[in-house]
Each structure stands twice: as structure tokens, then as C-alpha cells.
Design a protein that fits this description.
The chain is an alpha/beta fold. Helix content is 35%, strand content 17%. The strands form 2 sheets. A 5-stranded parallel β-sheet has the order 2-5-1-6-7, with helices on both faces. A two-stranded antiparallel ribbon has the order 3-4. Helix 3 (134-147) crosses helix 4 (153-172). The two termini are 15 Å apart. 31% of the residues are buried.
């Protein structure tokens, strides 16, 4: 079997990685494209580090089960199906679902530390960095964490100041100049999605 073409999508929290991924995924049949997200590989709450204030910091490279993520990505590349449990970000109001990932000729890999984990870099063919102004990322994070994850505003702001921003500066931004494509999402990324969709179609038709 020909090796799938693997595209990694990274960027800071609130930059629009997940939204970008959803748009691309909807343009193709599940037999053509597979999406794997680091968001579903967070370690259990009791295994996470805490900041000096006693608050769990989920924005560290060690918060993700890197080995499990790399193992499952490798399986997909080898043509194996992967079954994982959806991570609900400790939202008691959300029901965790079983996620079945099926191998496909195009694999999209998304996550905060997708450029930082060196053991997956040899598996990636195209690297895309999505960026946005810091104030926009804060607003998007507040809205998302309140509506989707049921986080209190005070907790969201604490996380952004002490966890999210330092993580972006230390583990995400340094790789911006090493990627293949940088996409600006201050307003929208409509043109960029169409470009990538066209590129993927060319790969599928090759």
C-alpha cells in the first residue's frame, strides 16, 4: 500500500485549528481523508502537572500521551483502524463517544504540539501553521471554553495568562518559521481552505 500523505495542522489555542480541520474534512468522503487530533490524547486528570497556584496545567507537552498518539498515527499510516475514546475536557455535561479512525490516503493531524513532538516529524509530509492576533485568540478561547467545555470565566482567564500564552511562546511559536505554510485567521481562512482542498484533490487524483 502506498504511504498516505500526512498533513499536520498546528498553531496557538484559539487560532482556529479545529474549525479549519472541520472545513477540510467536510469536503471529502471518509474513505479519502482521516483526521486525528491530539485533543483526544490528554492524560488522565490525576497525571497532569499543577501550576504554583495549584491549578492543573493542560498546556504542557507532557499533558498529552505522546506515545499513544504516535503509536495510533503510525497504525493509520500502516493501514490499521484505530479506536479511541473522545476526550471531553472534564466537562461533566458532555458524553464521551467512541471515535473510530479509519485509514485513508490523506491523514490530517491536528494539535497544539504537533510541531514540537520530534518523534512524529518523520511521518509528516506537509506542515501548516494557523495564526491569529492574540486578542482574538483570547476572545475565541473564552467563548469556546464557556459554551463547549463549561469552564468558568475566571478559570479561562487564569489558564490563558499562566498556561496558554507561555505554552504558545515556548512550544508553538518557535516552529512557525520551520513549517511549509502559514495561514492568517484574523478574519477568516476561506481562501486557504479552498487552496488546501484543491491540493488534496490533486493528491487523491495523482
Amino acid at each position: 500500500m502506498k504511504k498516505p500523505y500526512v498533513i499536520s495542522i498546528g498553531g496557538g489555542s484559539g487560532s482556529g485549528k479545529t474549525s479549519f480541520l472541520r472545513i477540510i474534512r467536510k469536503a471529502f468522503h471518509e474513505s479519502e481523508i482521516c483526521c486525528i487530533s491530539m485533543d483526544d490524547y490528554y492524560k488522565p486528570k490525576e497525571m497532569q502537572e499543577k501550576d504554583p497556584f495549584g491549578v492543573i496545567n493542560y498546556d504542557l507537552p507532557g499533558s498529552i500521551d505522546k506515545d499513544a498518539f504516535c503509536r495510533d498515527l503510525s497504525k493509520l499510516i500502516e493501514g490499521e483502524e484505530v479506536v479511541i475514546q473522545e476526550y471531553t475536557f472534564n466537562n461533566e455535561l458532555a458524553d464521551s463517544k467512541e471515535i473510530r479512525l479509519k485509514p485513508a490516503p490523506i491523514i490530517l493531524v491536528e494539535g497544539l504540539f504537533v510541531f514540537h513532538y520530534q518523534n512524529i516529524q518523520p511521518l509528516i509530509d506537509l506542515r501548516i501553521f494557523i495564526e491569529a492576533k492574540e486578542n482574538l485568540k483570547v476572545i475565541r478561547r473564552i467563548i469556546r471554553d464557556k459554551e463547549e467545555r463549561n469552564y468558568p470565566l475566571k478559570e479561562v482567564l487564569h489558564d490563558y495568562q499562566y498556561h496558554v500564552l507561555p505554552a504558545f511562546e515556548n512550544y508553538i511559536l518557535p516552529y512557525r518559521d520551520e513549517v511549509d505554510m502559514v495561514i492568517n485567521n484574523n478574519d477568516h481562512f476561506n481562501n486557504a481552505t479552498q487552496v488546501l482542498i484543491g491540493f488534496i484533490k490533486s493528491k487523491l487524483n495523482a
